[in-house]
Write a structure and sequence with these properties.
Strand content: 25-35%
Structural class: alpha+beta
Largest sheet: 11 strands, mixed
Distance between the termini: 35 Å
Low-confidence stretches: 1-13
Radius of gyration: 28 Å
Number of helices: 12
Shape: globular
Mean pLDDT: 95
Length: 642
Amino acid sequence: MRVSVLILLLFCPPLFAQTQFHRLFTDNAILQRDTVIPVTGTAPANTPIVVYLDNREVGSTTANAAGRWQLNLPAQQAGGPHQLRASGETTATADNILFGDVWLVSGQSNMELTMARVAEAFPEDLATAHYQQIREFTVTDRYDFSGPQQDYTDGQWRAATQTHIANLSAVAFYFARELYLENGIPIGIVNASLGGSPIEAWMGSHLVQQYPAIMQALAPFKQAGHIASITAEDTTRAAQWQKQLDSSDTGLAEQWYRPSYNDTQWQQLTLPGQLPEAQNTFSGVWWARKTFDLPTPPQQDLLVRLGRIVDADEVYINGEKVANTTYQYPPRRYLIDKKHFKKGTNLIAVRVTSQGGNSEFVTNKPYFVGTDDWRISLAGPWRYKVASRIAPLAPPTFVRWQPTGLYNAMIAPAIGFPLSGAVWYQGESNAGAPEGYADKLVAMAEDWRASWQQDWPFLTVQLTNFMARKPQPEDTTWAQLRHQQMQASQRLDNAATIVTLDIGEGNDIHPVNKAEVGRRLALAAQHLAYADDVDYQGPVLSDIMAKQDQLIVIFEEASLPMQLANPEQNGFAIAGADGIFHWAKAQVSDQRVILTSPDVSAPRQVRYGWGDNPAAGLFDSVGLPAAPFSATLESSGKQVQD
């Protein structure tokens, strides 16, 4: 069995001046119950260390020549609180320790996204949060290309209470809450996630060595001065672009944000909507203005909701700049001081910056000014004008997303800290090139398990539905990436993929319904980690067969009874020998779905839930959706999953 990276790193320099615990063994930590725990820390070289649990000595050891020590804490039952103490030349103490179940959660922005970002959808969950036995250690965003690190430089355990809930991962909280309420066991979350990150950043160098292109991309980042050089280049380029943009912006020069400015010659635009001049790409600045009336001066600060804007925005109220957001993804939710508003006519002006692409006020989002008790809609007619067009800004290098960097700094320091399992929510950044993703995901999951020397459950959240729904069946990279995610779970033991095809938002890569994502993850955890007999996945493909002009899709009996959410938009498409897919009519009969299309006389292929934003039409008896799939009937009549 492979030796843990954490154990190997105990014998590396540098030296330390006082006795300390590893960052994960600090105040308010949750430690894995019912297993031996290797407690680690640092101290001056060759210092004898004695470890106590609630003033009972549990063992002693000696710091090695590099000042690192480790001692095994005997398995403990769930519960607490406890105190952990390490005594050497100085003493380190960790208070309010609980034993429970610990999960590592990782991935990109949909895992990182905090409860603050879903507050409008789930206000009661933030207002009433008081879960002292659900705690998260949020790993600080860092990268390192020199090799696996041994500890985190900072970080603390925080309970899911009103004090901290807004800053905790939404997916992780809902997942943990479901498990805690079901089992009554403290739940600890180690959250190592970073928006925009590709899977290669979470893989160790020993894994990416088999990919020459990745190794070639990584090589410069190990050279002294390279990161500083490209960072300086990126900063200079962005500053020059912004300077050119601002200097060419007629709106700034003529102060289009002033109420006294005459915009009657501007064109009218219904917002939310897209800038007409964009024509699929626009780089520069445009302004939008609208007036609204207040019957009385506001007695409290007002909320201005501007949905989501592509890309950046600056908001002016009655001539004063009051808010801004620098990139497209965050919701525009601005609480504005009441002093900026007045009785009667008020002006809102928005300066929109686009770096190239579809510049827009995104539809199906809230647009209003008001309070919890009253609102004035900001949707509808606005006046707008383009102020500047310049060449698009070249994207930055995104050093932190380069191969191995996040593994070294955000995963490796946790190796050896016992877990109940891992949750992986990533894939958007790899969707442009999905081929081989399953191989990487399998290799990464197996490597993490080997490093921990634990065969814990590995749960993957499949990409949700996103982008515009197309009128005809199509093959897309998002569909292929979902297929790769499912393939990885099928190749791994003790693994599951969570389907979210029905709870996304076509106009937002960060859908807010993280509560249902967490619930479905918890169902899979109950099945895999707790051996509960629960329904944790929707209908599962078993076989397909052809009968004249029908294609019959057979599902496993465990998913019965199945149901179609919408027989007309059911997500099924079939094709004949020509490989051209057409939407199919579907009829459910026991464990079968019978598919027909007037355009396919002899069907040989089927796809379900295939595309960027396909209809999710098939569910099991408790409302869990079927996973997307593609399958072909060979000439022998045998079904083959593509």
